[in-house]
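Input record (one chain):
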Amino acid sequence: MDELQAELMAAFASELAEHMAGIRAALADADAGRPVDLREFSRRAHSLKGAARAVELPATEAAAHEAEALLLAIESGDRAMDEAAIVELRMLADAIEDGAAPPAAATDTEREIEPERRVAIAGHRVERLGRSLHVMATQVAEQGQVAERLDALSQDLATLLPMLANSGDGEAARRLRQATGELDRIRRLHGRLRDALDRSSAELERDGERMLLQPVATLFDGHERAVRDLAAAEGKIARLQVADIAGEADRRVLNALRDPLLHLLRNAVRHGIETPAARRLAGKDDAGTIAVDARIDRGRLTITVRDDGAGLNDAAIAARARAAGLIAADAPVPRDHALHALLFEQGFSTAERLDEVAGRGIGLSVVAEVARRLHGSATIARGTGGGTIVALAVPVALTRRTLLLVEVGDMRLALPADAVQQVRRIDPVELSPSGSDTMVTIDGTAIPVSRLGDMLAVAHGAPAGTLPAVMIAADGVRRMLVVDGLSDVRALLIGDVAAIAADVPLVLGTILLNGEIVLVLDPVQLVRDRPGTAALPIAADAAPEPHGKTILVVDDSITTRTLERSILEAQGYRVLIEVDGLAGLERLRSGLDAIDLVVADVEMPRMDGFTLLAAIRNDPALKTLPVVMMTSRNSPDDIERGLSLGADAYVTKQDFDQGKLIGVVQQLI
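The corresponding structure, as predicted from the sequence alone:
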């Protein structure tokens, strides 16, 4: 067995174990007279049938197909879920497992050719290591609370020193000075140890995450033959084109995508590619093409499956949707995106007959459900030159994810940063009513506005002046969410939501932040129309008086600079933006704006923050300008370097909050 085949079989074995556990549990429920979810049972058999075809296990494929057909007959009422049916299903379940059993004589030979560089480690052990490392990193981060208490104690002692000196008790004052000095030494030692521990834990965590990475290209291996065979069974000709794909992703993500990818290829063959005769009439080659591509951008893996077939049949989709009750009889047919999204609904199918290739409404609903479970999304659209395009977008890893933290009343909540398109403040005069909704116009497009507190049914703060808001996008739909405050941007581990919020549809997961559980909200659910949400009031208190001061923010991260701009503008400052140190220096030297303070990131392309700071201090016209350095690197060496170059303040992003930034700015200007 070659290395690729061994890898595919290992993935199939994991999938087989998962689905068979569910099938056996369903059979146990049937034996006990408990209700059985026939659609879930059928979905598992359908998934195993496709997976077995991919790894060339015909006996397992045939048994799974028979089980699926029997379950469909039971679901439609043609067969009863009686003792005979249960016995038959149990025999088919045994046949599924028997067909996947490896030949006993092959193990010794396979062991001899196993490359020495590979070490077999159980996946669950690697995942457990990753979770342990994340817990350790969280505990290390909480050491900041110790530093804060040491700082507070130092300030208290410094306040007591002059009081004792004035009391005339020289010995007490001397001992207090000694204690203060010792406390300062402890603070410095704790700071150095904490920084070293931060770096070590971060490196350990990265190493643990790397152990879970696997080339994305392995996801597409072995599907060319499956596409050819599926097409031949349909009397069609199809070829699969896989682009050169670079990059790595979490193996758990890739394993979860194997079944949905097979469903998409099967649907492209069955519903997309035409017969050779039909293609000739349309002026096409006899052979249809299914093109698969994958790209990684901003921590998200997007897989695109395109075919050059007949494309989406809107009339057939609408007819089936009405028959399934997804569109009311007297309601107009949705257009484009809204209509095509119905293809992902449970039980929806335009297949005319039952066979081994058709998905029977299972395939695309599985695709959408897997995407959601991976904190991603699935979309389907008509190709610009014909055919159909299906896209799956999911995070590259199931470990850390960049989140925007927001405040609503007394709650702190998190939004996935990759779903955030804008962070801005809305003037109430920009809002306009539209039926039961409130809208705001952004770049010529009307965007619905909702107060996040109302959507979650939690108390929110009273509006005062301009309204902090976040525009999110998911599945091609945008919505502006009004919040009470913007807190931070952090890369954090998203945990399972089931333990504490299983019945909250808006919640994607949870994070642990300084010992507090914070809910991560699902952008896909947030952008949907939610009946009962109160319209946003179009009145607010007067905005804060402008300071007349201008601040230049220099940062290459669009999320960070937008957050800083929003916080500063909320306090009445005028804020200018530049994307790197060189652009910031050119802006300063142009003399076009009277700038009162600079907030600069340390790590930037072209010119970093240290070089920008040195240039400001060496320019006679700029050398007195206050400069605040912002960095994600909480290193004593970096802080010392920044202060030695003349920085007026140094704010680390780990400890960043809007109150701290505002306080520093108010002290300087």
